[in-house]
Amino acid sequence: MTVNPNHTGHALAEIERGRTAGMIGVKLAASRRANDPLLDPICEAAGRHGLPILHHIWQHRRRDWPGQEASDAAELCALAARHPAVTFILAHIGGGGDWLHSLPVLTARSNVYVDLSGSGVDGGMLEACIDAVGVDRLLWGTDMTMETGWAKLRYLTHLLSAEALGRVMWKNAARIFPPHSFPTD
What we know:
By secondary structure, the protein is α/β, with parallel strands linked by helices. It has helices at about 10-20, 40-50, 75-80, 100-105, 125-135, 145-160, 160-175; strands at about 1-5, 25-30, 55, 90, 110-115, 140. The chain has one domain: Alpha-Beta Barrel (TIM Barrel), CATH 3.20.20.140.
């Protein structure tokens, strides 16, 4: 369920409403920087319910854009450091910007998982993500079109064993989302 962190009371009420309807995770609307303390009550609520939090990231933001509060990986890791019991998903490592800039800060934050989706399919991206966080913190996904997601998955079959590929494809997600979120878990 997407919540707007600019309206804390409404966001918390949405999380409670969503939980009764079977919600399995929180998506933060990209309208507030990830390191802003305004997100803390939302993280605390997600932690109480065992819900992961997804946050869109712009890799190595070099300037601000009017009306956008795009965060980078360092800001997400600052939030994750304040909430070590909450699982965070860095959405779209291939979604724009300098993804290589994000990887060094991710190595120290074991509660931040990397979503491999996004339209970027740069050479060396998947290998660098594996080297930075290992296969246990990678989540395969798609965004906008299936083609880039399928291309990344196909390439991963050449990099990983079948067991490691299964972790990236679904087992890591089944581990971080609430039990019984997926039919196969």
